[in-house]
C-alpha cells in the first residue's frame, strides 16, 4: 500500500516536471503522429497493466479481504477511456472546434440532452445486454464511449446548433 502510494507520488512529480517540457514538442507533431502516439501509449498502458496483473483481485479474494480491483477489466476501463478521449479530443480540436460558450441556454440544454441520449444509447447495450467478462472487451467498450463523448457528441451538437 505504501509502495503504491510512493510510486503514484513519483509518477505525479515526474508528470509535473516533464509535462511543460514535452507539451510544446507534442503540439508541433502532425495530427497523424499525435494519433499514433495516443494509440501506442494507451495500448501500452492497458497491455502492461493487464498482462502484469491479469487477476489482481484473485489472491485477495481467497483471503476474505475485499479486493483492491473490482475485476480484471479495470485496466481495460482506464486504457479504453484514455484511448477514446485522446483520439476524440485530437480529432475534435482539428475538425469540429465545438465551443458552447456563445450558445443560448436553450441550445446548451438541447446539447446536453442530445449528448446524454447518445451516450446512453451507445453505452447501455454494451453494459447490460452484452455480458462479456474480458479486459479487452472493456477496453473496446470504454474507448468507444469516450470517443463518442469527445468527438461524436460535439460534432452532432455543432450540426444541430447550426440548424436551430
Structure notes:
With 164 residues, the protein is an all-alpha fold. The chain has one domain. The chain is 80% helix and 0% strand. It has helices spanning 2-28, 31-52, 58-62, 74-96, 105-129, 135-163. Helix 2 packs antiparallel against helix 4, helix 4 runs parallel beside helix 6 (135-163) and helix 5 packs antiparallel against helix 6.
SSE order and pairing:
Layout: H1 2-28, H2 31-52, H3 58-62, H4 74-96, H5 105-129, H6 135-163
Helix pairs in contact: 2-4, 4-6, 5-6
Output the keywords:
0% strand, mainly alpha, globular
Short description:
This protein has 164 residues and is mainly α. It has helices at 2-28, 31-52, 58-62, 74-96, 105-129, 135-163. It has one domain.
Helix and strand run: HHHHHH
- The termini sit apart by 54 Å
Q: Averaged pLDDT, please?
A: 84
Into which percentage range does the β-strand content fall? Answer: under 5%
Name the poorly predicted regions. 66-70
What value does the Rg take, in angstroms?
19 Å
Outline the biggest β-sheet. none
Main structural class: mainly alpha
User: Which bin fits the share of residues in helices?
Assistant: over 70%
What is the general shape? globular
**How many runs of DSSP E, i.e. beta strands?**
0
* Helix segment tally: 6
Number of domains: 1
Amino acid at each position: 500500500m505504501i509502495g503504491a502510494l510512493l510510486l503514484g507520488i513519483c509518477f505525479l512529480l515526474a508528470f509535473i516536471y516533464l509535462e511543460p517540457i514535452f507539451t510544446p514538442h507534442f503540439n508541433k507533431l502532425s495530427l497523424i503522429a499525435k494519433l499514433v502516439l495516443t494509440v501506442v501509449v494507451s495500448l501500452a498502458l492497458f497491455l502492461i497493466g493487464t498482462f502484469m496483473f491479469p487477476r489482481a483481485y484473485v489472491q485477495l479474494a481467497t483471503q476474505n479481504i475485499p479486493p483492491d480491483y473490482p475485476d480484471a477489466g479495470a485496466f481495460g476501463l482506464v486504457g479504453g477511456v484514455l484511448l477514446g478521449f485522446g483520439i476524440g479530443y485530437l480529432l475534435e480540436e482539428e475538425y469540429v472546434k465545438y465551443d458552447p460558450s456563445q450558445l443560448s441556454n436553450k441550445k446548451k440544454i438541447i446539447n446536453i440532452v442530445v449528448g446524454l441520449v447518445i451516450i446512453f444509447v451507445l453505452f447501455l447495450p454494451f453494459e447490460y445486454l452484452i455480458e462479456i467478462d474480458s479486459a479487452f472487451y472493456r477496453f473496446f467498450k470504454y474507448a468507444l464511449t469516450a470517443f463518442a463523448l469527445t468527438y461524436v457528441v460535439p460534432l452532432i451538437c455543432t450540426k444541430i446548433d447550426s440548424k436551430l
